[in-house]
Model the fold of this input.
Amino acid sequence: MIQKLIEKIKKTNAPIVVGLDPMMKYIPEHIKQAAYQEQGETLEGAAEAVWQYNKAIIDATYDLIPAVKPQIAMYEQFGIPGLTAFKKTVDYCKEKDLVVIGDVKRGDIGSTSEAYAVGHIGKVQAGSRFYRGFDEDFITVNPYLGSDGVKPFIAVGKEEKKGIFVLVKTSNPSSGEFQDRLVEGRPLYEIVGEQVAAWGEEHMGEEYSYVGAVVGATYPEQGKILRKLMPKTYILVPGYGAQGGKGADLVHFFNEDGLGAIVNSSRGIIAAYQQEKYAQFGAKNFADASRQAVVDMIEDISGALASKY
Done:
């Protein structure tokens, strides 16, 4: 699957991923009202609004992008109907031949990690048959429990030719409370990055590993260091746009081949119509605003890479 991701990035010339992180405040009123009229003001109604919102954005952008990244918490808050909307979103994106990165941030003791891995990127047995649960192509993984919590994901990934992105240096403001702490004179994120590179040697594709890393766009200097520590690691870069990251900040996350990183934007794309820059589209044409935001993001990042490489 890492090869498919790389090939689609090359084909689209768009090293970006759209974060499908729907919140009710992003969803236009006409979408919500239609869903509530059909399903009532219920969890089912809210989940239907989420699904219709996602579908419109996917339809408007799938030909421009290689991948999407749905954040499962935004769906879990609506209970079982929300998880149904998550699964429908994953399946629809795969119908559109998009690579799906499930932003689930799982990580626990070995047997629990194995169950998470089976549910999200593997197959589960029911009697004599096997079924895929959520069936993403990649998922995000929290490494805080160490190798016991990560290796089950790698093992299932090997079986399925799927991958993971391990949290290394996250984009949130308080990430440094733990990640920047010095351990034997070095920040913890460097040590985690080295371990990610080592894990990656166990599950290599042709050019890059199936074991990727999450490094926030808001920390470009740390990104430069981690790029050197993890030369064969694909870096998922959150924090573009709404969190302050811009194309010029991101060139050091990439290798000289112009590959090695994929940049995420969530509300900057899915809620673009709420920004002054795209206000002319209006709520009725929210998906068209999202498409234009994707075009602008591609131009920003491609221009920055062209000037660097």
The chain has a mean pLDDT of 95. The domain at 2-308 is CATH 3.20.20.70 (TIM Barrel).
